[in-house]
Fold this protein.
Amino acid sequence: PPRSTLFPYTTLFRSLTSSIPPVEGHAEYRVTLATLLQQQGDSAEAARHWAVLIAWDDSQAPWWVGLAISLETQGELAGAARAYRQAAELPGLPRSLADYVQQRLQALRAG
């Protein structure tokens, strides 16, 4: 995309990462940041933020999926499979995300 198209996202991204608040009271901020990092191709940094979120509250199935995707993107397949399994065991996954988790687990077992 043209640089002018990327500018607002670059500015937003710099703003989000310049002063990262603690997870407590700002969990959605961290979720947004981790998601953006993953979308920007920074899986390692995304995984770090998902891990911080999970350390704070390990009962959020979507966060485990985020961690799993970040780990899988980095080629850390065993860790990704563990995170996908954890997500599958927890309540609260929307049906489409639960189906995705099962597909990824099957693919990782087959691979």
